[in-house]
Amino acid sequence: VVSFGGDGVEPNNDATVEYALDVVDDISRMNAITSIAAINIASPAVMTSIGDGLAEGQNQLDKRGLPDHEHIMILLSDGMENEPSYWNNVKNDIKSKGTVVHTIALGTGQFNELLETIADETKGEYYYVDAAVAAAAAPSSTMAITPLNAVPSTPESMPVEVRLADTFREVEEQIGGKERLWSYYGTMPVGTNDIFELLIDEGQVVEAVVSVSWANPADELDLTLQAPDGSLIDPGTPGIQFFRYDTHKVYHIPNMDRGRWLINIESVAGADADFVATVSAKVIAGAKMQTWIHS
Question: In this prediction, what percent of the chain has a pLDDT beyond 70?
Fold first, then answer.
């Protein structure tokens, strides 16, 4: 985790290693999240040195990255670089080492061109998240029937925290070679739940990630699943990895068997919660999915 904020003084390195590159396990995940939460931007007018940030990220990959793994960085910025080092100062080193940079533009869109260029030149993907909360759009849903409790919505009408969480999930899917099998944006009234059905007809679905993310840390959503054989999947299920943080809960499931899966989402604390729920996985031999909601 590298932050980068210019201080108006040059030449110097404006990047800070908040958490050094590490092998992914439960401890390192929590340490990285804690480090991100502790990043303090003293002023919204702070200068931006994208080059320093990327150079420090590349330095971490050079020193601590595994040589037999693909080297990837995710750059989150509004795209306005206004203090050295700039992208043009560091791009030759990054490109020569084959590092892929996926970029997420978070802002109003006026400085997105640079982030598109960085992704294009490093064979990464570019994503855009409008920092403003858009006006409420007409609800829409890909479900076969109307939800009982969760009010369906569109990504554009969700808070920026929900849309940004979904964008990071898209980046994860891109990196891991996974497909988005299902997603649902909505608002869950506190004290209610909905059960979503996911039918896997054929093929093999492996390395699945089932997640729910919401906007406000004061709210809480619970997420449980039922496998086609009727067995309950909860945080204590052997062979299943479960991660929970202030605004999301995630299951990593090695293999999703054919049949009907039930995904139960319940609002258990706080107020009505804006959320996005997703299922992504590697799909082998053309698995087919159908989804709907029932009581």
Answer: 87
pTM of the entire predicted model: 0.84
- For residues 4 and 47, is the Cβ–Cβ distance under 8 A? no
Is 90 exceeded by the pLDDT of residue 280?
A: yes
Express each pLDDT in 182-215 by its tens digit.
888 889 999 999 888 888 887 789 999 999 999 9
Token pair for residue 159? 């808070």
Question: In whole angstroms, what separates CA 282 from the centre of its chain?
Answer: 17
Mean pLDDT of 98-124: 92
Pairing status of strand 179-188 against strand 193-200? unpaired
Measure the CA–CA gap between 246 and 277, rounded to whole angstroms.
15
Residues 6 or more apart whose Cβ sits within 8 Å of residue 61: 21, 71, 73, 97, 99
Q: What is the model's pLDDT at position 135?
A: 44
Q: Read off the amino acid at residue 281.
A: A
What pLDDT was estimated at residue 41?
Answer: 67
Give the span between the Cα atoms of 217 and 215, in whole angstroms. 7
The amino acid at 278: T
Q: What is the pLDDT of residue 6?
A: 72
Q: Among residues 211, 229, 216, 217, which one has the least CA distance to residue 265?
A: 211
DSSP per-residue string spanning 224-279 = EEE-TTS-EE-TT-TT-EEEEETTEEEEEEEEE-SEEEEEEEEEEESS-EEEEEEE
